[in-house]
Amino acid sequence: MSAILEARELRVVRGGREVVRIEALALEEASTLAILGPNGAGKTTLLLALAALLPSVGEVRFRGMPVVDALAFRRRVAVVFQRPLLLDRSVRENAELGLALRGVASQVRRSRAADALARLGIAHLAERSALGLSGGEAQRVSIARAIAVDPEILFLDEPFAALDAPTREALIADLARVLRTRRVTTVLVTHDRDEALSLADRIAVLLAGRLRQLDLAERVFANPADPEVAAFVGVENVLPARVESIAADLTTLRVADQLIEVTAEPPAGDDFPLLCVRPDDVVISRDPSTTSARNSFAGTIVRLEPIGRRVRIVLDCGFPLVANVTIRSARDLALAEGDVVTASFKATLPHLLARHRAA
Amino acid sequence: MELIVQGIVEAARRIVTLDRDVLDAASASLAVSGTATALSIAIGIPLGALLGLGRFPGRNAVLSVVNTGMGLPPVAVGLFVAVLVWRSGPLGGLDWYCTRPAIVMAQLILAGPTVIGLTAVALQSVDPMLRTQLTSLGATGVQSAWLLVRESRLLLISAALAGFGAVISEIGASLMVGCNVKGDTRILTTAIALETSKGEFGTAFALAFILLALVFAVSAVTTWAQQRPRPL
Fold it and tell me: Which residue of A has its CA nearest to B142?
C-alpha cells in the first residue's frame, strides 16, 4: 500500500502556543487511521490541519504532491464533524450539498445523494426537512453528505461523541460496513478506545500535541510505546521491575518482593524495565488452586469501584495491581473490600517497556 | 372620551368607504417606505455580510459607525438631505426637493444602517463550525457567504422588516424633505400630524389604525422568523 497523505514536520501554533507538532505521519490508501487521544490533546487541530482547514507550518503531501491549492484539495476529501451541521433544507438537498458546490449536474447529484442516503439507511428521510431529525438521523445525513462526494480521504472528527450508546453502536456498525465496502481512506479522530478498535487498522496516539505511537491497532493496545500511552490505552498496571534472569523463552522479573515470569523480552540493555499488565488480563479467584496461570499472588482488596458494566478492583499484592471483572463475576465471588483473593495473569500477556522512556 | 369614540367611528367609516385621502396617504407611505427598504436590502445585506463574515482592518470602526447610524435622529437626517437636494445644494440639479425621491433618500439613510447592522449580527450569530463545514465541503468564500446568507434568511427578513418598521413610522425627515404635498408626498405619518393639528380626529385615527396594522404585521412576521426552530 502507498501513502495517500503524508505530513512532515507539521506544526500548528495557536495564540502563540505550539499546540501540535508532528514529525512524520503517513496515511495509507484504503486504510483507516484513528487519531486517539484525550480531550485537549490536539486531535481536532491535527485533523483540521491535515484537511487544509487550519493554517499550519510544515509539509502536507497528497498523493506525493505538496498541498498548495487548498480548495482543490478540499474538493477531493470530505470532513464529518462531531455535530451534523446541516442546512435548513431537506435531507436530500443536504446530502447533495458537497456535489452542488463542486458543480456536479443535478441529475448526477440526485442519484449519488440517493445512493449515499441508502447506504446509511436513511433513504426514506430524503424529502424530510433537516429541522425535524433526531441526533442519530442528522449525523447519518452528515456522513451521507460526505460519502456522496466520493472522497479520496474521509476525515471524521468524533462523529459519534454526541450520540447515545445504542445510536452510536448502530451508526459505527453501518459506517464500518460503508468504509469497508467502498474502501474509503479514513482518518478518525476519537478519544474512545472502543471506537478506534472498531474502525481503525492503525492507531496514532496523540498526547499533548505529540504523536507518541503509530502502529497497528491491536499492537498499540497490546504493546503501548511508553507509560503514558499505556495509561491512555487502559494499561493501568505499569510496575517498576528488575530483571532477575533471562532463560530461552522466559524472563523472570522481581516486582517488590514478588517474582513474575513473562515471555516478553526486556528492552535491550535495560535491567530495570516497566512491567505492563492490562487490568482485563488479571483474573481474580477465591481459590488459588483454580488458576493455571504462571503468575499468581495473594492480594488484599483495597478498593472496589463499579464502572459501567464492570468493577475495577484495586489490590495490594505487595505491589499495587488493578483488575477488571464483570459485575456478575464480582457478585458471584462476593467480593468485598478487605478480602484476600488470588490475582493471576498469564506469562504471555504482559509486555515490558524501557524505563528511560518514562520521562 | 366622547371625542375618542367619535374619532374611532369616523375612522371606521373612512376605512370602510375607502376614503380617497386615507388611501392616497397609505399608498404613498407604502411606495416610499417600500422603495427605501428595498434599496436598503439591496445595499445593506451585501455590506452586512461583508461586516459579519469578513475580517479586515478597521472593521470594528465601521461597525461602530453602522451601530451609530441605527440610532440617527430622523430630523437630523431630514436636515442633511434637505440641504443636499435644496436648489442650491450639491444635488440641487436633480430637483428632488419636496418629491418622493427625496423622502426615499432620507428613509434609505435611516433604514440602511439598521439592515446592515442586523445583517452583520445575524451572520455573526451563525455557528462558526457551519462555516468550517461549508469550507470543508469545497465551498469558495463567495459560495460560503451566499449559503450562510440563505441560512440566515429568516433573521435577514427580520432585519429588512426592522428597516421598514423604522421608516414607515418616521415623520421628521419625510416632512422636511417631502413638504407634505397632498396626493404626492403626504404619507401616513405626515398626514396624521396634519389632520390632528386641524382637529380632524376621525381621519387621523383612520390613518393611525392603518399605520398600526402595518407595524403589527411587521412585528408578527419578525417574531415568527425569530422563533422558528433550527436544524442540528
Answer: A101
> For B46-90, what is each residue's pLDDT tens digit?
999 999 998 899 999 999 999 999 989 999 999 999 999 999 999
List every span in chain A annotated with CATH 2.40.50.100: 239-353
Whether the CB of A273 is below 8 Å from some CB of chain B: the reply is no
- According to the CATH classification, is domain A3-235 in 3.40.50.1820? no
Contact criterion met (CB < 8 Å) for A53 and B135: yes
**C-alpha angle with apex A33: A28 to A34, nearest 5 degrees?**
170
Question: How many Å apart are CA B143 and CA B158, to the nearest integer?
Answer: 23
Pairing between β-strand A153-157 and β-strand A77-80 as defined by DSSP bridges: parallel
**Distances from the Cα of A123 to the Cα of A146, A170, B9, B120, B166, angstroms:** 15, 16, 60, 37, 47
Q: In whole angstroms, give the CA distance from residue A99 to residue A94.
A: 10
- CA distance, residue A118 to nearest chain B CA (Å): 20
Q: In what order do the strands lie in the sheet with A283-285?
A: A283-285, A340-345, A295-307, A310-316, A320-326
Comma-separated ranges of CATH 3.40.50.300 domains in chain A: 3-235
The alpha carbon of residue A341 is apart from the nearest alpha carbon of chain B, in Å, by 51
* Architecture of domain B2-225 in this structure: Orthogonal Bundle (1.10)
- Nearby residues of B83 by Cβ (< 8 Å), 6 or more positions away: B89
Q: What is the pLDDT of residues A274-315, one digit of tens each?
A: 999 999 999 999 987 777 788 999 999 999 999 888 999 999
Picking from A88, A90, A125, A139 by the largest number of B CB atoms within 10 A of its own CB, the best residue to mutate is A88
Q: How far is CA A180 from CA A36, A137, A186, A201, B97, in A?
A: 20, 21, 10, 11, 74
CATH level 3 topology of A239-353? OB fold (Dihydrolipoamide Acetyltransferase, E2P) (2.40.50)
Q: What is the DSSP string of B85-96?
A: HSTTSTTGGG--
**Cβ atoms within 10 Å, residue B166:** 23
By Cβ distance, the residue of B129, B133, B138 closest to A75 is: B138
Prediction ipTM score: 0.81
Q: Determine the residue of chain A that is closest to B154 in CA distance.
A: A88
Q: Using the 8-state DSSP alphabet, how is residue A232 labeled?
A: H
